[in-house]
Amino acid sequence: VLKLTVESEGGRYAYPPAVLIAPPFRGGRRATAVAVLRKGAVESVVLTDPGEGYSASDEPLRVEVAPPTC
Questions:
Q1: Nearest to 42 by CA among 2, 10, 3
Q2: Residue 48 in contact with residue 9, Cβ under 8 Å?
Q3: Which residue from 22, 60, 18 is spatially nearest to 42, judged by alpha carbons?
């Protein structure tokens, strides 16, 4: 994984939500990332570990951001 782009910022976050990146299709090390907030919305997602074993055939890569807690 080289880059993640936020398509929908969401809102009402008090704390950065968990970010879950799908593992490589053929095995390997799962990539990890953290969310960066600005005014309660996800401004960006920073890749903390690109993982290992991903390929172009794995796209589109599934990335989930946890919803805000009540």
A1: 10
A2: no
A3: 18
